[in-house]
């Protein structure tokens, strides 16, 4: 009773310092946080299978979008749970402390050690380490970024961790025959909805596989098939949009032949085999940075990544972690690779070739295939500010990029050696992004930067190309715009400098600050001029709303070059017509999802090309 008079005065009833929690306790709280994250991550992939079976495409898209947030949500949640445990314990630095005290250092080193110990036998140790880093960075200040407190390098090897079930299954066509082996392989995925006609699909698939292998296996009949001949496929399906993919390798005489089998739905909602992707380039396109992340249920993600790397050795582990939805792991690995590359190269960062942006300062390291984009301090575009640019980049991250928009990694506080910056670039950064850089001794810290794959800007390509190459690039340019539009993206600024060509010659859009959704746009015809003076005046004679677009105007700023105009009008004249855009917008507004196949239509099984007349947009 006599405590009552003091009840409102917490400084009197709470001890100044609480007993310290044990390092084991803190480590186990972080691991619990990660385990919860990974269970939810796996659950979303399990849900994707059910959604695919029931052809619930909007559900799959929504799930993919929501899943992107899971990681940050769980990190915040875990840090919030740790808050009260660490509060008043002298274990977190106060905001004005620059260094951790020796006691604090010892404690956090022990937490890291305990965490590493608890990962023995864990199935996703590399992702758990990354989660540990994210949580610790929230709790500690960023100045403590070093290997004593964080997993700057991995502590646990991920080779040969295998799940209770092995991560891939093997089939032996020499023992059973090809058709039974393929049938078994497909039925082993246990899809709950029926195939339209599995035996006939498998026959077509086998025929196509034999046709491909005839060209690829050794010519000498005595050496054609080796005793190691087998088909290996990852245990679970890869889901994205309206497709599910079996990913595997055919092994013969130790040579790996990568493949993927695309499963889709018939209009009557039965499952069917749509295509056999039989080359490394096909798989590279499937796993491209221009597409949404796959939903795939993996107990041991590192085993999946090792398998995928055997199929496409040119792609880094970082890219695969990204593609399978573990983008924080991808981001972490990318940064490690990048620092490693910096330590093994000597060239200089310099401004990216092409036309400078009004919103972004873009630079690159020639020996490394990425560009670095920083938002300018002063943006010479009406109504554009840092928050809007960031929200547009986030929109793209969450949107289905449909093979036409590049994914980006967003980093803060990137410290790089100043001597690796060309004088011209240093000058540019000091002038254009002074609030975004910090120069300390021999380092330059980039406070905020987007990193994205480097491409060849289309304006540069068009200035070099002629004849068929130019025509094909312009054809693809229009296709890219159509596909973006069908996918509810109005690019805003469609100048050629905002598109780039990938290594495989695919055209991708990368300037996001003016994108909007199709559904918020008004596409209008230019009304007839009331008189000649109006037509000649510098101001338009008709009112223009904020989201009004006049497709006829594209001709003026896109089609000045005769060669480009001719090619454009041959393939895409309707893109200059507001009616085309309105029809497209209405389809999107009705929730119609077009079939955008992440592969060349020639890879579809023969009967599909005739039998499935739905709108088809090739890869
Ligand atoms: N991924 C990339 N690969 C190669 N070059 C690139 C890439 N991204 C940007 N660039 C180069 O940097 C320039 C500016 O990039 P970006 O279009 O993103 O900037 P911006 O400021 O948003 O442009 P804008 O003024 O059109 O709004 C491009 O025109 C191109 O030359």
From TrEMBL:
UniProt subcellular location? Cytoplasm
Please give the Gene Ontology molecular function terms for this protein: kinase activity
List the InterPro entries hit by this protein, alphabetically.
AceK_kinase, AceK_regulatory, Isocitrate_DH_AceK
According to the UniProt entry, where is the signal peptide? none
- Cite the binding residues for ATP: 352-358, 373
Give the E.C. number(s). Answer: 2.7.11.5, 3.1.3.-
Occurrences of domain Isocitrate dehydrogenase kinase/phosphatase (AceK) regulatory (ranges): 27-346
User: Catalysed reaction per UniProt?
Assistant: L-seryl-[isocitrate dehydrogenase] + ATP = O-phospho-L-seryl-[isocitrate dehydrogenase] + ADP + H(+)
Keywords from the named record? ATP-binding, Cytoplasm, Glyoxylate bypass, Hydrolase, Kinase, Nucleotide-binding, Protein phosphatase, Serine/threonine-protein kinase, Transferase, Tricarboxylic acid cycle
Has the keyword ATP-binding been applied to this entry?
A: yes
Pfam families given in the database record: AceK_kinase, AceK_regulatory
- Tell me where in this chain the Isocitrate dehydrogenase kinase/phosphatase (AceK) kinase domain is found: 348-600
Predominantly, its location class is cytoplasm
Active-site residues, record numbering mapped to chain: 407
Q: Which family does it belong to?
A: Belongs to the AceK family.
**What is this protein's function per UniProt?**
Bifunctional enzyme which can phosphorylate or dephosphorylate isocitrate dehydrogenase (IDH) on a specific serine residue. This is a regulatory mechanism which enables bacteria to bypass the Krebs cycle via the glyoxylate shunt in response to the source of carbon. When bacteria are grown on glucose, IDH is fully active and unphosphorylated, but when grown on acetate or ethanol, the activity of IDH declines drastically concomitant with its phosphorylation.
The record, for HAMAP family, names: AceK
Which protein is depicted?
Isocitrate dehydrogenase kinase/phosphatase
Could you tell me which species this protein originates from? Answer: Paenalcaligenes hermetiae
Query: What is the taxonomic lineage of the source species?
Result: Bacteria, Pseudomonadati, Pseudomonadota, Betaproteobacteria, Burkholderiales
